[in-house]
Amino acid sequence: MPFKMSIASLKETLEVEKELIKSTLEQMESENIHETAVKNLLSKLQTDITSFVTKIKADFEDGLKEYDMVKYLNNMLKLEYKGIFDYNYYASLATDKELADRLREFGAVEIQHAQMIIDKIRALGAKPKIPGAAKRAKYTDVLEMLKEHAAAEKEAIELCEEGVKIFTDPEFQWLLGTIRVDEISHQRVIKELVKKFENVQMVFKIQEKYNPPKEINFKSDEPWTEG
């Protein structure tokens, strides 16, 4: 990780430590503990951390912004990976052709989104955080699945809108705008599928545990299946 990312991570850690010191001092006061040496040391640490964090903010403002951007993008990547695996996995189980086709299309688009996000994270000099194993109930009703992913699409749209307000980098805003348009389209189609299947009984049998791929193979358009 480049130095500017490391210093931003250090700042975040120090701010957490500062809050812990503050809490400890307050606890000493509330319990009437008179350990002068300990109190003085904690107070000095608190002052030194405040001074150092202030200097980091002043000297490394651009690095801090990029660090926040990377954190934001890794959060988005979690949603994209959920879509990559789930949409293709359920598409492989669906007996209804329209449903299978739509889910597979969604999964392909989420792969494109993940590619864009991963490329941007790496361009910022950081490492993408690829999600680990995921668990699901043994049986999932098709309507439950659709409603769950309608909510996930809504979350992704809101996340994109939030990011556009926070980060002013033009390339970053273009990335979020592109993803947002796709997620709005997915949301609309999912609502149509919900209407179609609201009175249909279709249950997917799910394995107890599955793992999304550690690294996406962007040269393949094959749907993911459980290995």
Secondary structure elements and their pairing?
Layout: H1 3-30, H2 36-59, H3 61-93, H4 97-123, E1 134-135, E2 139-141, H5 142-166, H6 170-197, E3 203-205, E4 209-210
Antiparallel strand pairs: 1-4, 2-3
Helical percentage: over 70%
Tally of individual helices: 6
What strand line-up does the widest sheet have? 1-4
Name the CATH architecture of the largest domain.
Up-down Bundle
Give the total of domains: 2
Range of strand content: under 5%
Helix/strand class: mainly alpha
Along the chain, the helix and strand elements come as HHHHEEHHEE
- The span between the termini is 32 Å
Overall form: elongated
Give me the CATH superfamily of the largest domain. Ferritin, core subunit, four-helix bundle
Specify Rg, calculated over alpha carbons.
23 Å
CATH fold field value of the largest domain: Ferritin
Low-pLDDT residue spans: 218-227
User: Would you state the CATH class of the largest domain?
Assistant: Mainly Alpha
Mean pLDDT: 82
Q: What characterizes the major β-sheet?
A: 2 strands, antiparallel
Number of strands: 4
Describe what is shown at a glance.
It is built from 6 helices and 4 strands, in the order ααααββααββ. The protein is mainly alpha-helical and 227 residues long.
Overview of the structural elements:
With 227 residues, this protein is mostly helical. It folds into 2 domains: 3-59; 62-210, Ferritin. Helix content is 73%, strand content 4%. It is built from 6 helices and 4 strands. It has a two-stranded antiparallel sheet with strand order 1-4. Helix 1 crosses helix 3. The chain starts with a helix and ends in a 17-residue tail after the last strand. The relative contact order is 0.13.
